[in-house]
Structures are given as structure tokens and as C-alpha cells.
Design brief:
Number of domains: 2
Order of helices and strands: EEHHEEHHHHHHEHEEHHEHEEH
Oligomer: single chain
Distance between the termini: 30 Å
Strand order of the largest sheet: 1-2-3-4
Number of strands: 10
Largest sheet: 4 strands, mixed
Strand content: 5-15%
Number of helices: 13
Length: about 375
């Protein structure tokens, strides 16, 4: 449910591709490592050949990561699950799908698609190394890509969430227990155990003398630990909000103001009531919405002689919810559009207001109730 961050560099199959700022760090490190490796293995090449091939190989590697994520994405789209984006970052790639799969078979197939894709890429690059008469530079690049794609596939099969193997493990537990939350809890705990093993292994490697490798392994383990915790927290939130509709948590006391009222009067009303979002009425008919952000778009000295109608958002441009819409969907839209409140419309009538804080209070209440029930 978090917002997309990064630099958009294009799209494939209508899926936006982003580069997270951390990606530039790992791209530089891999390029430097490859350039150094090629220099040691092929001292007869010129420095420009070493570094040019290092850059080309690094680009092909991250292209392979994109193809890996496309493997997940194509299967997800086959199940009518929207894919919001693919992002390359310091630890590889991440395909963000719009919702969880509806059954364990879908989860298994989406999870296994990435490693299968990487194994196929590894085999394809290996076949390139066997082409008769291929140049030494092509063979060097293809050899490294065959090996790294094999490692990428094997590593992702480790049964710890959020790795692909963790999704596969969750699918198996889900299929056996028919309980998605329990399966996610087991997969997340497995991911945490694996993460701590990597952290301790990295520390041991560091003490043994491999400082760079040890730090990197521990760093990856730390990332996996945090990712496993975050993944389980998100599933917990989804489970807690399941079954709640916008109409269940909306506020029916709808603050309103006339379209001819000044922005100054509106701000005074906000200070008096603590309610920041007001419906703007033309008589009894709602015509828009006024918020503090909209008021700030007008210079302070003009508030007293500027009507709220001049600053309001017209009704046809407002994000709104329906009473029967799931609260989770409303919250996701609020976060995606970066808005705090929206009106709830039943037909053409505004019947309430829903805000992030009311959703979060409902979430807190349900989590507390669930905790008490387990005691």
C-alpha cells in the first residue's frame, strides 16, 4: 500500500519500470567488480574493454532481473491480478501486484515463475558460451550471466518470505491448512529465521577475514528480516480490515459551508471544530469540497474577500467512496492519491465522510479485539 518511489525509465507489457535511488549504488558496485574481474581473468584486454564489458554485463544482469520479475508479473496478469510496477533496487527487483492471489494454486504459480525464468535465462546464456567461434568477450559475459542467473534462481528458492521460495512455502501451507493468515505467519517466521542465519553467518565471515562478503551477507539478512516483518504486518492489516465497508466507519455528521462564504470564515470554522474538510453547498445542493490545502493556495491577505467556491475542488473532480466499498480499497486509494479524507456518496447524495484516522482507529480496535480473543 505504499506509494511508488524511484525514477521511471519505461514500461514493458504496460507495466511501469522504476529505478530506486539505491539501484545506482549496486549498479556501480557490480560494474566495478566485473571490470576488476575481467581485468584479472583477461590481462590482454585493454582497460577500455574491461570497463565497457563490465558496464554491458551489469546492464544485462539487471535486464535479467527485470525478466525474472516479468515472469511473476505475466502469471499474475493471467489470473487478472493487476501489476502496478517493477522496481529495481539495491537487492534486485520487486514486482508490486495490486492484490493477493485468491488461492494457493495462484500463489504457487506466481511464486515459482520467477525462479523458472531465471533458470531458463541461465541455460540460454550457457548455450551462448557453446556457440562455435564466439568471441572471447561474448563468452566471458555469457559465462558470468549464466552463473549469476543460476545463483539468483537458487537463492530465491530459499523458503523464507518475502523471497520467491517463501511464497512457494506459503502456498503449500495455505493449500494444506486452507488458512492464508496462518500460512503467511509461518512463511514470515521462516524468513526471519533464515535472515538471522544470514546475519550471524555474515558476522562469522567478517571475523574470519572476508570483511566485504561478510558485511554484504549480514546486510542482506537484515533486509530480509525487515521485509519479512513488514510483509506479515501488511497481511495482518488486510485481514483485520476484511469485511469492513466504508459505510461502517464513515462519519455521518457532514460539515458544510455555503459557496459564498469566505475562506476566512472557513478557516475559523476549522479552528472551532477541528474538522478540516467541508462540503461546499449551493443552497442544499453539494457542489464541491474545501480543504486546508485548497485554502493555502490563496494568499493569506485575500482570504477575507475570496469565496470558498474560488478555491474548492469541484464535485466532479473529487475522489469519493461508496458505502459498500471495502475500507481496505478506500485506504489504498487514499494512500495512492495522497489524500486524507473523502466523501461517501450514495447515488448523488453525500451521506458521510471517511478519513484515514477513522480507518486506523477501526484497525486498532479490531487488532486489540483479536488479541483479547486469543488470550
Amino acid at each position: 500500500m505504499e506509494q511508488q518511489t524511484g525514477i521511471r525509465v519505461g514500461q514493458i507489457l504496460k507495466i511501469p519500470i522504476y529505478l530506486h535511488p539505491s539501484w545506482f549504488i549496486i549498479f556501480a558496485l557490480i560494474t566495478f567488480s566485473l571490470g576488476t574481474q575481467f581485468k584479472q581473468q583477461h590481462p590482454g584486454w585493454s582497460p577500455s574493454q574491461h570497463w565497457a564489458l563490465g558496464i554491458i554485463t551489469a546492464i544485462l544482469f539487471f535486464s535479467s532481473v527485470v525478466v525474472h520479475e516479468l515472469g511473476h508479473s505475466v502469471v499474475a496478469m493471467r489470473y487478472k491480478i493487476p501489476v502496478q510496477s517493477i522496481t529495481l533496487f539495491v537487492f534486485g527487483g520487486l514486482a508490486r501486484i495490486g492484490r493477493e492471489p485468491t488461492n494457493s494454486r495462484q500463489e504457487f504459480n506466481i511464486g515459482i515463475a520467477g525462479p523458472i525464468t531465471s533458470f531458463l535465462l541461465s541455460g540460454g546464456f550457457y548455450l551462448v558460451t557453446r556457440i562455435p567461434g564466439a568471441s572471447e568477450m561474448v563468452i566471458a559475459t555469457a559465462t558470468w550471466l549464466a552463473e549469476i542467473n543460476f545463483v539468483l534462481a537458487a537463492f530465491n528458492l530459499v523458503p523464507g518470505f518475502p523471497l520467491d521460495g517463501g511464497r512457494i512455502f506459503r502456498a503449500l501451507v495455505w493449500g494444506i491448512t486452507n488458512d492464508f493468515s496462518k500460512a503467511t505467519r509461518y512463511a514470515a517466521r521462516s524468513g526471519q529465521v533464515i535472515a538471522y542465519l544470514m546475519i550471524f553467518g555474515g558476522i562469522a565471515q567478517f571475523v574470519a577475514g572476508d570483511k566485504i562478503g561478510g558485511l554484504w551477507l549480514a546486510f542482506i539478512g537484515w533486509f530480509l528480516r525487515d521485509a519479512a516483518q513488514e510483509s506479515y504486518a501488511q497481511v495482518t492489516i488486510r485481514s483485520a480490515l476484511t469485511g469492513i465497508r466504508a459505510g461502517d466507519v464513515m462519519t455521518q455528521d457532514i460539515p458544510a459551508i455555503g459557496r459564498e462564504d469566505s475562506i476566512e470564515n472557513y478557516v475559523q470554522e476549522v479552528l472551532r471544530t477541528g474538522r478540516r474538510c467541508y462540503v461546499v453547498n449551493n443552497g442544499e445542493i453539494p457542489v464541491g469540497l474545501i480543504t486546508l490545502d485548497a485554502a493555502r493556495s490563496v494568499p493569506r491577505e485575500d482570504w477575507s474577500n475570496t469565496s470558498v467556491q474560488a478555491a474548492m475542488m469541484p464535485l466532479d473532480k473529487i475522489h469519493w467512496a461508496q458505502p459498500a466499498e471495502p475500507v481496505l480499497s478506500v485506504l489504498e486509494r487514499m494512500q495512492r492519491e495522497d489524500i486524507n479524507q473523502m466523501p461517501v456518496l450514495d447515488g448523488e447524495h453525500i451521506v458521510g465522510m471517511i478519513a484515514r484516522d477513522t480507518i486506523l482507529r477501526a484497525l486498532q480496535t479490531r487488532l486489540q479485539a483479536g488479541h483479547l480473543a486469543e488470550q
